[in-house]
Amino acid sequence: xxxxxxxxxxxxxxxxxxxxxxxxxxxxxxxxxxxxxxxxxxxxxxxxxxxxxxxxxxxxxxxxxxxxxxxxxxxxxxxxxxxxxxxxxxxxxxxxxxxxxxxxxxxxxxxxxxxxxxxxxxxxxxxxxxxxxxxxxxxxxxxxxxxxxxxxxxxxxxxxxxxxxxxxxxxxxxxxxxxxxxxxxxxxxxxxxxxxxxxxxxxxxxxxxxxxxxxxxxxxxxxxxxxxxxxxxxxxxxxxxxxxxxxxxxxxxxxxxxxxxxxxxxxxxxxxxxxxxxxxxxxxxxxxxxxxxxxxxxxxxxxxxxxxxxxxxxxxxxxxxxxxxxxxxxxxxxxxxxxxxxxxxxxxxxxxxxxxxxxxxxxxxxxxxxxxxxxxxxxxxxxxxxxxxxxxxxxxxxxxxxxxxxxxxx
Length: 410
Description:
This protein is mainly beta. It is built from two helices and 28 strands. 3% of the residues lie in helices and 20% in strands. The protein has helices spanning 380-383, 403-409; strands at 2-4, 13-16, 19-22, 37-41, 47-50, 58-60, 62-64, 72-73, 81-83, 91-94, 102-103, 114-118, 139-141, 163-165, 173-174, 187-189, 197-198, 211-213, 236-238, 260-262, 283-285, 293-294, 307-309, 317-318, 331-333, 363-365, 393-394, 399-400. Residues 1-17 and 406-410 have low confidence and may be disordered.
């Protein structure tokens, strides 16, 4: 298989005034009859238009026409083009970073077997049925398209799409009717939009969703009805950078399958039962939440948690039993806090009955804390996987703490 870069296609281009127009391909042209080409790349070529049948009798696995000057798309551009990958008959088309605003109703007429489409970084105007014809599409990238509103029916006909990227747009509200037609969606990114509200059951149609990214929005007040129907969300729920301060006790009641939750860069206040419903959660990230103290039972209900990330907070004290109820914990990240001590009583001894009441072989990271080397941290000798990487600095010896140092101090 071959790669055909932009430079090798120049023989099939007409140039005028520093801009390029792809004309119809004819026998003998460079683009005519290309077969079994892995990637045809026409990036950065100042292409302003594509003539009818410019790719006649061309078969490629992927076509990239990004970073050009296209302003519209119609179906005649793709006459004679076959986009397919070996064995699956699905190819990819990248039209990102153009000036595309208008998409004709027949735009995808000849691309029924397209598997992946990127229209990122275009000032798109979408309308109901705009993607008709893409009945095999699995991935759709619409990031940074200046979208402010998604009309009902926009995604009609996209029943096989599993990944939709709508990040870095200007969508401010989520409605249930936005998602009509997305019968198989598993991964949805809405990060960086400026979303301020989610209608009750705003995601209820997305019953197959497993990964939802809502970070970098303005969802400071979360309600349980926002997440109704998301029973299969498992891989990730990202709520970072939203200005969240409180979580209602039952907000995750419909998300019992969730395994990864990001709440970074908020201002969370710990309340009773805030983790209710997350009994299968395995990874919780709470970086940069201005947390200064952890009280007893701060993580009650997270009995399956494997990894807890509290890095870059303002922790000065962790109460006894603050980490009680976490018998599966394998990684604890406490970098860059203000801890001067870390006693084993932060765990519940009954969670670790076979290891002297504290965890063993845990990944504990304490870099960037003013912890001093005393007998109270001796338990880390058994608890930590790697003492040399744990991040405790011994001022007396002027070096990072290692296992034999603990022994010398006792």
